[in-house]
Amino acid sequence: xxxxxxxxxxxxxxxxxxxxxxxxxxxxxxxxxxxxxxxxxxxxxxxxxEPTELWRGFTALSADLVPTGGPxxxxxxxxxxxxxxxxxxxxxxxxxxxxxDEVAKxxxxxxxxxxxxKL
Length: 119
Fold this sequence. Notes:
Helix content is 39%, strand content 8%. By secondary structure, it is mainly alpha-helical. The strands form two sheets. It has a two-stranded antiparallel sheet with strand order 1-4. The model is unreliable at 1-15 and 18-23 (pLDDT under 50).
């Protein structure tokens, strides 16, 4: 998923996040709704994290603690962290990226920051 990717569904629509299969214990639509509510609650917070700011000058640390990869924004860090937490759910890779794109689009619209998504 990237800003250039076409959305699978309109932001806020029920099909924006796949529903959980019976017995999976993970309801992507409910989690997405909660994430959007959290984003909205931070709209007017003066010291909130700015998604376009640099988080750190490297992507990850190797096993021997050597920085690897290029610079990472706070948005990229958030996506990486959320992706880790979505691992093990019923979401496949494309659905996970769509989920993360929906959160980022909500940030863009609510906080009025340009993250490169078409809304």
